[in-house]
Design brief:
- The chain is α/β, with parallel strands linked by helices.
- It is 29% helix and 25% strand.
- The protein has helices spanning 33-43, 57-65, 83-88; strands at residues 2-7, 27-28, 31-32, 48-53, 72-77.
- A three-stranded parallel sheet has the order 1-4-5, with helices on one face.
- It is globular.
């Protein structure tokens, strides 16, 4: 089974944290949001993820490359944010 994660937003409501960190790498308690997502996806037997990025994409790429998961992840980069519908189309 496959999943699509929208992680390209700038996280304006989480400022000033997101001035240096993408919102999916913001800690929630003692875990990063993206780690929580991947844990849920693993529990749902998701085997592939398409992850769109934009804001601080390199940080997300680095984290995913070092994430201990069996989920195959394809990362896309949106140079210009297309909003929710634009990403899917």
């Amino acid at each position: 089974m496959k999943a699509f994660l929208l992680a390209a937003g700038i996280g304006s409501r989480l400022r000033p944290i997101t001035l240096t960190t993408p919102k999916c790498l913001v800690p929630i308690g003692d875990r990063l949001l993206i780690d929580i997502w991947y844990n849920i996806l693993e529990n749902l037997n998701i085997t592939e993820v398409l992850l769109n990025t934009s804001h601080f994409s390199h940080q997300i790429q680095h984290h995913i490359n070092n994430l201990p998961t069996s989920i195959k992840t394809t990362i896309t980069y949106e140079k210009e944010l297309l909003e929710r519908d634009g990403t899917i189309i």
